[in-house]
Amino acid sequence: MKKxxxxxxxxxxxxxxxxxxxxxxxxxGFYTDSEPEASHLEYCHEWVHLKGSSNTETYLNIEQIVExxxxxxxDAVHPGYGFLSENTEFCKRLEELGTIFIGPHSDAIHxxxxxxxxxxxxxxxxxxxxxxSTGEIDSAEEAASIAKDIGYPVLLKAVxxxxxxxxxxxxxxxxxxxxxxxxxREALSSFGNPGVLVEKFIVNPHHIEVQxxxxxxxxxxxxxxxxxxxxxxHQKIVEEAPSPFIGSDEELxxxxxxxxxxxxxxxxxxxxxxxxxxxxxxxxxxxLEMNTRIQVEHPITEEITGIDLLVxxxxxxxxxxxxxxxxxxxxxxxxxxxxxxxxxxPITMLPAPGQVNGFEYTFPQGIRxxxxxxxxxxVKSDFDPMIGKLIGYGHNRNVVIRKLDNALxxxxxxxxxxxxxxxxxxxKEENFKKGLYTTNYIGEVAPQEGVEATKDVExxxxxxxxxxxxALQEGRGx
Length: 478
Hints:
Rossmann fold; D-amino Acid Aminotransferase, Chain A, domain 1; five-stranded parallel sheet
């Protein structure tokens, strides 16, 4: 048995702990001064105190974490996603300690974590990239020169980081200087690196990503694609697999998936990871970035392939064979959609911290709910507002939409605002139901404008339940 430390919190820490236990290892979880009874600890064998309350003092504190690894004789570390999951320095420190990092080697994290370096590597590997700068640009004037060559609109984006931060679309030269300075400021504030790239902005694009999993013997497999085009502020809200845009075009599907493997091979990848592409209306696609970690939306891939990505990620890191030995063993069966449940205003889509004072759910068959919710949970502004992921699986896309719609009606979270009403509107919206959407969906279709009607339905639903409960109680009394 290995002692495996989970350097994370929330629903992903629970998911990792479950995988560790399934493999017969010891799950070790962190508790902090601000979360002394965090929900993931229930699934861990051992608890370790990570002193501090802010992210900087705790989950981003490499020195403290390294000392705790030594003190508690930790064999391996799983970083989850976010925090230190794509931090090259952290990975190197563990390599020096002889502690296993459950993720790729530090060289792959470094090369894929820097957008300028990853773009150059993609080019060298024969992977198509979006036209734009070959590396970091130094000034707005240089950006204007490149934009003139490739044509407007262009996208200014931070070299480091992700999650939709440090990105801005520029439609003409008059906007460029101001936007360039704004992106540099946000990049420095969010990632500690002010570097900026400029790329051609693809009109009406689709965000397509390919899940890969690799072992330590040079074997790299793909688990097909996901569509993640429904986003707000470049952050995903709804994801599905397989992509409705690719649809039945198996030649395109295999082309995208094999292109992802080509890039992974270029960096000798040896873990779970995701290669992200932007796909135009004509179905031409270009490399965006590679996430060298497990993704938030990994459950929908697990549902359609039957492969446990977390379990195989751990097995790979420990040098054990994966649960499959050939690409032919991996196939798509059915369809899956994930709705991210966030503590945020369903209309403005801005974070809405608060405390859960009521939590119940009744779901149909085919629903999976990965979450960290409990009565009394305090959702703080320090952390990402996502508190759960509602995953639907079924024989086809229409079946999944029906199941998720039913599940959302059966999900009650009281005490704080959530985006559940927004998901209800999206699932009923005609463009989504037909699979006709791009990354412009939220801005152009604006499903958030229909949220008020959904709130009325929910209110009536609650009243109906209250009336029914009163009737039952009166009957019991008689």
